[in-house]
Amino acid sequence: MSGPAPSPGTPKPAHRLREIALLYLRLGATAFGGPAAHIAMMEDEVVRRRKWVSREKFLDLLGAANLIPGPSSTEMGIYLGHAYAGWPGLIVAGVCFIAPAMLVTLALAWAYVRFGSLPQVGAVLYGVKPVIIAVVAQALSSLGRTALKSRFLVALAAAAALASALGTGPLPILLLAGGAAAVARRASGAQGWSVGGIAKGLVPAALSGAAPFSLGGLFLVFLKIGAVLFGSGYVLLAFLRADFVDHRHWLTEGQLLDAVAAGQVTPGPVFTTATFIGYLLAGVPGAAVATVGIFLPSFLFVAASGPLLPRLRRSKAAAAFLDGVTAGSLALMAVVAVQLCLAAVVDLPTALIAAASFVLLVRFRLNSVWLVLAGALAGAAIGRLR
């Protein structure tokens, strides 16, 4: 993957890096609404306004970002930075897009630790958590219609959901779902696969038992998540719950929901939820370690994937594997949504908030940030009435 070829009249490298830094700092501070919104903002700025890359090149890079693990909008920004300013642009674009969201999330984590036990803060989170459930449900509904494009993939998703409910970790589910889809594609006989047969392959023994906390362990957990997570950023919830709540017992269910809420209310990548979790567990050092761990694989994958992309895009087996991984990702999202719903929707007001948020998301396509803020205000109001 080579950098842009210089030509007469083009900006000098230092000027290009400054342009990238200013653009991505602004995007990182204002890009609300999730990966699709982030990518749309990048297309408007980089293709239409600045003409750093052609529309065809942009679409090629977007396809590449969807073929590798990690946060797709962050990786898209990294690809575009490299396309405009080579290897330095790759680093500057990624760091500048991540940094504003990380700092805002860090401030929220500090406030949560400092004031989280106060009744008014608890009331705000009481209203925000049901909104998060609605956001995840809406994403499931939208992605499912696009991704589950055959009966086989629907069956694969159902089997993956069953496996997750029975205690299988997210990584085995995604790998086995992708492998099953690739094998079925090669055999040209998806009808021969049954839900029961797929589920049997997806249900190894569940992980259990607490683990002692360390900064090194925290880094490795987030490095693993960043290196293997395909699909929407909301699939992150499944990995976080499995690693931090079920397996290591470093977080409670409520703390996980609070961390996800922080990731939703801040701009930029949802993966900065890691910053919040790291701060809860080990203060500023933990926040730094967690953030570097979860985003580092994205930089490495983008840097390494350039020469392989044309071959992967032409491979039917790679496309089928990705279809299977996507089906497994949606199944993980569905199981986590149910589990978190039980913790967030605890009475009639929270049920009404969740239902109203879902309707507004689906019917009127309201930005999730406004819903999160409305949920916070509703929670605060209900708290004052009690």
Task: Give an account of the 3D structure.
This protein is mainly α and 386 residues long. It folds into two domains: 13-96, no CATH class; 97-385, no CATH class. It contains 16 helices and no strands. It has helices spanning 13-30, 35-49, 55-67, 72-115, 119-147, 151-165, 170-187, 195-201, 215-228, 236-247, 253-265, 273-305, 309-314, 316-344, 348-364, 368-385. The longest helix has 44 residues, at 72-115. The termini are far apart.
What brief labels describe this structure?
globular, 386 residues, 2 domains
Shape: globular
What quaternary form is this? single chain
SSE order, as H and E?
HHHHHHHHHHHHHHHH
What is the strand content?
under 5%
Rg to the nearest angstrom?
Answer: 21 Å
What is the count of DSSP helices, taking H or I runs of 4+ residues?
16
Euclidean distance between termini CA atoms: 60 Å
Q: Helical percent range? A: over 70%
Largest sheet: none
DSSP E strands, number: 0
**Secondary structural class:** mainly alpha
- Low-confidence segments, given as residue ranges, are 189-208
Mean pLDDT: 82
